[in-house]
Every structure is written in structure tokens, then in C-alpha cells.
Amino acid sequence: MDIRNICLLGHGGSGKTSLVESMLYITGVTDRLGKPADGNTVCDYDPEEIKRQISISLAMTPVQYNGVKINVLDTPGNFDFAGEMQSGVRAAEVGVLVCASKDGLSVGAERCWKYLKEQKKPCIVYISKEDEENANFSTTLDALREKLSKSIAPVVAPIWDENKRTIGIIDVLNKKAYKMPENKKGKREEIPIPDSKMKVVDELYGQLMEAVAETTEENMEKFFAGESFTKEEIMTGLKVGMHEGTLAPVVCGSALTGLGTEMLLSTIVDLVPGPLEMPAEEAMDESGENAVEVKRDPNGPTAAIVFKTISDQYGKYSLVKVISGRITGDMNLYNPATGKTEKLGRLYTIKGKKNEEVKEIACGDIGAIAKMDRLKTGETLCDPKSIVKLAPVAFAEPCYSRAIAPKTRGQDEKVGTGLIRLNEEDPTFNVVNNAETHQVVVSGAGDIQIDVLVSKLKSRFGVDAELDTPRVAYREKIRKQVRKQGRHKKQTGGSGQFGDVWIRFEPCESESLEFCEEVVGGAVPKNFFPAVEKGLREACLHGVLAGTHTPQCKKEQNGQFCPKAYR
After folding, report:
1. Interval 474-526: pLDDT, tens
2. Mean pLDDT, the chain, integer
3. Quick one: fold of 3-277?
4. CA–CA gap between residue 45 and residue 31 (Å, rounded)
5. Alpha-carbon distance 242 to 262, whole Å?
6. Which homologous superfamily is 281-390 in?
């Protein structure tokens, strides 16, 4: 099976979800064009996404174009859900960077570009919303080339009318022009290239030929000799340029009218490398100390990475990308993270919120495994005879914290259970039960993410929760060295009791109490040392200034003891 895995990423509101809808409509998967504002899109199906009209979670849907299966991963553009974008990039071979034509280069697009380069993934740039007022393809393209990379090269050119409104596009490689008639339901039709655009097309074509020439020495010699490249040489050269990161093709269009969508699909099929064409993936062996390579071999030992977990009222689904071998429903695969063998459940292809059961997930393909309760995001499933551990997604550390508590007393357990289930879906937040402040603190990427968690607790688990400012667990610290004496003398009618202890307090760099003793000659028996240390540690829990914990303190003991007092 010929497969392409792509991840749509970019700033929030740039038109990623609408582009998926256009792909589904153009390829005949759906019979109507969904809109985020109407809450009827395939990928934004969660009630929170419909209410807020933004993407919150990574969603997947496959499309078929020219005999090729394209797995489309739609990711959120909001910074609070950057972890979803990172998960999508982990599973895809190429990122499609979506930029709104009227907005130019946004901060989100710039961050996504940098992340793709860090992960060494090829990129296609799609300039969206060409049909809207104030759209400017040239300005956006110039900003992309200036601030991101000169490797960004358009493979299309827009056609404008007298009001600077985009009415068609030109395929630069094939030198054909297309427009989208209103009465043909998304089917493009070919039109002649305007004379005013021929010079622009020739310039863009020349830039692409230069990119082809840079891929090999033979192409370079042929280019400088003034010879023309064949169609096969052009496509091979552009594909190599994308694979090596020296070329980022630019496509433009409008998801609402469908203009440019087929051109984007053609570019994905013709230029994007398939999963089996990607280099071997680095992994660790069973010991976790030695690096090994996992070749993308359909006949090799099975190795797959869990890049996303979906947990809803219907059950739990683990989304996997098969790197090597294949997965079938009757297999037993090893999980290096837990050290246990997992019996696989049913296999599915995810289509938004719908699932279609399949018999196997082929090498390079993406699918879902149902009811894998012990399997978590970032873990590896592999052949028990060839154990490897694939690299998980490195999520950013949480930077925003809020205290969370149920509105109704006695529902703390329901809040805890709900947060654990939600954390299976979204591992970018964490929950800490602070024993000092007596608060449950949830930490994430931002306020929107935390607010979504509270809403999901109510809708999925039926518990109302409220947020509050976390209390600060203050610390006290001594500033200089101090010596103190403690003397115990008690007359009980017999020989009495007597003990004399000197304690020296001084600052130290340790995070906890550092207890030392300087008793010489057995002046104090060693069996009394634990009691003294225990008393000091208890005293450190309540400082003298504000009653707070007092770590980073070194205490040294000396003293004397009268053995006759205890006879």
C-alpha cells in the first residue's frame, strides 16, 4: 500500500481544520463541507472544541487520492496544546505548515517551522484563505522566505482579477492554470494561463529548476550546460530536495472554495517521501544503554510507537505508528517500559470520531488499538525476540499551575480519578497533591488548557470543580552559625537523670537537614543519637519565624552524659 503521513500545523485560526474538510470533500469522503463555526467538522468533534470553536486535540482522518492513502493529522494551533502538535509531528513524515494569506508570518507558524527543523522533518507550506479580503500571497511569501528560509519555493502562482481577488491558480511545474466554478461542486477546470502571468511563471519555474540542479552533481552539470530536465528528473530532484530539507514547496488556495486543494494533494503524492523511503530510526536496546537502528522494513520485526491516546465513554484507543513489520489483532507484543507482553485487542482506522475495524496495520501506516489499559503515550510495542525502545515525544515542562478542588465536599476521589483518565490523553499536564499546603495542584501549559480540563471533568465524569490560586509552601533558613546548649536534670528520689547536649546550627547547601556528631570518647552513648536526630528533624518542620519548613540546615552534636543517673 502506498502511504503518506502528513501533519497540518500552524497558528490558531489559520485554517487547518477547514483544509481537512476541503480534502475530504474533494476526494468524496464527505458530501458536504463542514465549518468550525457550525460545529460540524470531522476533526473537531469534541464538545469542548465545538463550544470554543478551536481545535484542542490531535485528530486523524485518511483520504485516498490517485491510489495513495494519505493519513491527515490535524493539530491545534493554540500554544496551550503544543503537545498535540508535537505528537502529530512524531507520527508524520512531513509537516504541512498552514499560513493565512492576510496574516503573513505568524508566531505560531514560526514556532512550528523551527520544531520541524529540530525534528529533521520536510515541510510543505500552504498559504490559506486566498479568497478573503486583504489576502496577499506575495507579501506572505516574501515574509516566509525572509524570516524562515530561502529554501521556500512556490510551485503555484495565484491568478488575480482587477480587484486583487484570487480567482485561479497556476501549476508552475506543468504550466497549467485552474479555477473553481461555482456550479461544479469542488471540481476544478483548466483555463488558459493569462499573458500577464507568463513572466512570473517562467521565473518561478527557473527557481525550481535551480533547486533540482542542486540535488546532484549530474543535474548541476546539465543545468549549467543549458540542457532541460526531463519530467522524471524534475520530480526526483524535487523529492530529494524535500527529503534533504533544501526545498520547501509552497501551495496556496482556499478551503472554502476548494481552490488549490487538489494541487496540495498532488504535491503530497508526488513530492512527499513515503514511510518506507525515510531513513532508519534511532532507538535504544533492551538495556537502554546502547543505540540501535530500526529499519523501515515491512518484513522486519515489529516495532511501533504509541504517539497518542484517546479515552472516551466508549473506551480507550492507543494510536500507533508502525515503524517496522506489521501489527495484527492476534499478536503478542512486548512493552519495554513495563517489561510485560501485551495481548493486542481489535485494530481500527480512525476517521475523526468514527472507527473502522481493520485486520492489520501495515508498515508505515497509522492505526489504533482498542482497550490497551496498561499502554501509555510514548511507549513502544515491539517483537519479544527483537526488543527496542523508540524515542518518545519530548513534551515541554508545565509552566502554569492552579489549585483544583471539587465544589461539593466528598468528591475529591472523583476529581482525582478524572484527572488520571484525562492525563492518559494529555500527558503534558501533571497533578501534585501538596501535603504541606493541603491542595491538589494541576500544572499545564496555560489557562485555556486548565479550563478545558475542568470542563471535561464535568462533562465526562460528572464532577464540578473550581480553581484557586495555589498556596506557597514557604521556607525558612538560618543565616549564620549558632551554638545552643540543652541540659536535662531531674531528681527522682534515686540517683536522678542528667544529660547535657550542645548543638551547632549552620547554613548548608543540602535540601534537607544534615545531621553530624562530634562526640569524642563516648561522652554520649550512640544509642541516644537517633533520638536527638529525630527531635531535630521534627523541629525543622516548624520554623521559629512563620512556622514553615526549615531545610538547608547543618546541625552538629556534642555533649556529656552521666551513666549513673540511669542505673
Report:
1. 777 778 888 888 777 777 666 677 777 777 878 877 777 777 777 776 667 77
2. 87
3. Rossmann fold (3.40.50)
4. 17
5. 19
6. Translation factors (2.40.30.10)
First to last CA, the chain: 89
DSSP secondary structure of 53-74: TS--S-EEEEEEETTEEEEEEE
Owner of C-alpha cell 527496542? 388
Please report, as a single letter, which amino acid is at residue 254. Answer: S
C-alpha cell at 397: 515542562
Q: How far apart are CA 178 and CA 263, in angstroms?
A: 10
C-alpha cell at 336: 519495554
Give this prediction's pTM. 0.85
Task: Give the fold, CATH level 3, of 482-566.
Answer: Ribosomal Protein S5; domain 2 (3.30.230)
What is 465-510 written as a DSSP string?
Answer: EEEEPPPP--B----S-EEEEEEEEE--SSS-EEEEEEEEEEE-S-
Decide: 395 and 83 in contact? Cβ < 8 Å. Answer: yes
Q: Which three cell numbers stand for residue 550?
A: 526549615
pLDDT digits (tens, 9 = 90+) for 404-413: 999 998 899 9
Residue 542 clears pLDDT 90, i.e. is over it: no
**Is residue 26 helix, strand or coil?**
helix
Instruction: Give whole-number Cα distances, 409 to 73, 414, 420, 421, 466, in Å.
Output: 41, 11, 20, 21, 12
- Whose CA is closest to 377, among 362, 393, 357? 393
| HEC letters along 303-338 | EEEEEEEEEECCEEEEEEEEEECCEECCCEEEECCC
Q: What are the sequence ranges of the domains in the chain?
A: 3-277, 281-390, 400-468, 482-566
d(CA 346, CA 43): 22
Predicted confidence (pLDDT) per residue in 368-383, tens digit = 999 888 899 999 999 9
Per-residue pLDDT band for 109 (boundaries 50, 70, 90) equals very high
Query: Taking a C-beta distance cutoff of 8 angstroms, is the pair 121, 92 a contact?
Result: yes
CA dist., res. 426 & res. 257, Å (int) = 34
Superfamily name with CATH number, domain 400-468: Elongation Factor G (Translational Gtpase), domain 3 (3.30.70.870)
CA distances, 243 to each of 8, 262, 464 (Å): 18, 22, 49
Considering Cα of 11, then 13, then 17, then 18, what sign does the dihedral take?
negative
Where does residue 301 rank: exposed (0-12), middle (13-18), buried (19+ CB within 10 A)?
Answer: middle
Residues 6+ apart with CB under 8 A from 542: 548, 549
